[in-house]
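Sequence in, structure out.
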Amino acid sequence: MSFRIRLILPIIIILFAAYLRFYRFSEFVTFLGDQGRDAIIIKRIITLEHFPAIGAPSSLGQIFLGPFYYYLIAPFLLFFNFNPVGPAFGVGFLSIVGAIFAFKIVKKEFDFITALIFLIFISFSAVNVQLARFSWNPNLLPVFSFLALYFFDKTLTQKNKRYAALFGSFLSFSIQLHHLAFVLIIPTILSYLSSRIYFGISLNKILKQVQNDLKIILIAFISFVFFSLPLLIFDLRHNFLNTKNLLKFFSEGNPTDQEQFISRFLETNNFFYTHIFQTDFNQYFAFILTVVLIYITVKKFKLKNYFFIYINLVTFISYLLIFSVFNTARNFHYYNPVYFSFYLILSLLITSISKNKVFKYFIIIFVLALYIFFNLKSLSYLFSTRGNNQIKKAEIIADSILRDNPQIRFQTIALPYLETDGHIRYYLEIKGKRPLPADTLQEPLELFVLCFEKDCQVLGSPQWQIAAFKRAKVDKIWKVEGVKIYKLIHK
């Protein structure tokens, strides 16, 4: 393959990736309560008002992530002059940059064809495209977890201090993006121990080998702690709030289920392939596919020569096993730490499936064609005539409240209780009318209730902000962008 083709093909694929991620971008960007909450925090970083030591609360309750995502994405909100499309654009842009870096890594470690197929998988993946089209802390985890594994490989194989520092930092970044990245620690330990045993070191000499590796392990650990420091300091200053809530969740929340592990594993494994290929899979067929992938990988690639493959393979397997223990939905973003690892394994297998070039390229083209077809078909915005325009709607709703000239101190809340109003609050704040904090105990003079259903039972609602609003009286009701707004005042 000529140098010109080797240069042009990746560029064409990256352009397709960018097109899929930014086509009709502002029309379909998700901007709801979580994005509005994050935008408020990022806006206050930019204006030097507040520098948070914690990130977003996780879905586990009051267990907070680290603040890395806020600082990473803040420049994009500033660049877009506080338009909330900025953070979403930042996620899309960084996902493209991450795909380029991942392509270069695979090309360097293996060969051009494998790297090209890997890039196609990333670029046309409906899951990765959807993650790149809105701002949310887990969305960049596929890139960061893959880079963490790469730097771990380099740390062990080259005993390089710089790579050790990068591994520690990217592991910290990954965990700050989502708590499920904690699972990455287990395959890294397993990969480390297996590599030392494989290369002729007996079990009773592992501790001695660990002592020899202690310097790079210590550097990685210090790097990890350094970039996790804001969250650690927060925990120390708040009587270990995060740690206590995490322990409480595991002790009282029944998050795991070992009794039905086999059925949970089959379900977890099946959902993974459903998300990857965007089509329904039979769980037994999905299980056979995983077994075949493991078998062929182990048979074709020797650990001594392909340690990076084994790190990704161990990560993929251990993640599915550990995730199977948890009682939670199998949403596509919960698999973020292993998407790139799977794409790497699959790319290597289909490029090494046969020595017959005609048959090999037929398989490659066939697999990629089916993959692209099913993934593109599931991207509804490519075929939809109208966008949801959530950013514009949030601004219109905020403007309708501002036209009522709310008194300072006023408050906004959303009904039903599952709804949040961070996106409305963001526009109120940047337009100079900041509502009281959502968790404040201070009584407002006016309360604007945003009803996201056809009708809401406002007066007498058990929602605590309404219940605490003394002698409540409905002053006005109006409807804008499908949201009914109730203005409550004191009698």
